[in-house]
Amino acid sequence: MKLRITESQLERLRSKITEEVSPNEYSRVIKPSFNTYDLEIDGHEVEAIDCGDIRLTFSIGLEQRSWGIKGIDLGNIQGPSEVEAEFTYYATDEEGDYVAQDKTMVIYFDWSTANIETSDKSGVVTIDDDVEISLRKAENGNFIATEINITVYTL
What is the pTM for the complete model shown? Predict the structure, then answer.
């Protein structure tokens, strides 16, 4: 029996197989929400942005003492440095009607600048799957994440 796969499927398979996971490293798949305020493409206001799911990794560390555990820290949140996203905006056609247009562009991320909000209300140690991201236009015509807001749940 032969199995045929595309190059992108092969790359995803390779990354899953060779992915190293340390004992204190965890991951979570999130669906980011984007702030589209004041974003334009070709002179048209951006209505929606969809980049699919993003996998974020993070570490959980224990602050231990001889008498027990003093605290649990969640940190080192990392994600992809860039993703392709579909931007939706409305343009007028030759008849003057608004027509939805889609354009695929790249969004660049620097996860080290993320704003972390801590909550102890959930009873688990993880990151929230709702991550809010604000963007600005990059010099090359793509977009850069200027603000990344992540809620971290601790005990």
Answer: 0.79
